[in-house]
Amino acid sequence: MKKLFRKIVNQELHTTFFRDFAGIVFGSLLCGMSFSLFLVPFKASPGGVSGLAQIFFFFFHMPISITMLLFNIPLFIIGVIFINKGFGLKTIIAIVCVSLFAELSSYKYLSKIAYLKDFFYVIYEKAGAYSFTSEIFLAVLAGSLLLGAGIGIIIRFNGSTGGTDIPVLILRKYMGISVGNGYLIIETIIIFFIGIVFKNGNIILWGLLSLYISARVTDIILEGFSRSKALLIISNQSDQIKQFIIDEFERSCTILEGLGGYSNQNKKIIYAIIYRRELPMLKKEIKKVDPEAFVVVNEVYEVLGEGFKKL
């Protein structure tokens, strides 16, 4: 029995690892394409290691794949020394794959494929910067969407792209700065530094826009689109509203006991999760049965459990 149990566990671990590996590789592909095909040719990378790499690309004609790898290796070592967690094999895979795909998706290689050469536009010929579009706005938009999706997929499959993740986590550990604020500080400093190096204020603005778009897309990949609403309903007709939710939407709700701060009277508070499309119907019903009801509506990005997505 023990041998069978161990065999099942080992198979599950192998399946999980290869699933994560495939997800990290796919996410890395999207990241690599975003850098080579859209962001770096226009100097619009949203900070991070890729932002520093584009400086070496334009001034010293060093491939961004090599520069990103060279930056990430010492950062990875620093992360292992100072953080000592979360920087294992999957992080190494992501770092190597992002650099590899940034190289393979560059004009140097894709132009060798029949017909693909005609899709490239020359941005800075001297540096060998080519893009799939000649418009910087389209490049920033497409590149940021791909980058955000790629990072989100890598994180969703338990990986990490290294880079600025490491100094951000060090700031959190030793200075108590939150992860969100840490990213904002580090990436903004890098973006401004890039603009100063290239002596172009537009690069700073494009970089900040790219940072915002990619961060929002990453959040969407990790949390999903908001399809549900959470409601807190305080009403003297709570029983009638509760029954409407059960009968009309075929799902239950939770009744909380509350105390009015001004009236000092006991109140029944309904806590319910419904789909976005059901909200107008419920609001109409609440208005009909109790126009004086107090309703709070919040966004919900993921609901796990009966009536929604399985845990």
Distance between the termini: 28 Å
Overall form: elongated
Structure summary, number of beta strands: 6
Structure annotation, total helices: 11
Helix fraction by DSSP (H/I, runs of at least 4): 55-70%
Could you say how many structural domains there are in total?
2
What does this entry look like structurally?
The chain is elongated, with a radius of gyration of 25 Å. The chain is α+β, with helices and mostly antiparallel strands and 311 residues long. Helix content is 60%, strand content 12%. The longest helix is centred in the first third of the chain and has 38 residues, at 2-39. It has helices spanning 2-39, 48-60, 64-82, 89-104, 107-110, 136-156, 165-175, 179-198, 201-223, 238-249, 279-289; strands at residues 121-124, 129-131, 228-234, 254-259, 266-275, 294-300. 33% of the residues are buried. The chain starts with a helix and ends in an 11-residue tail after the last strand.
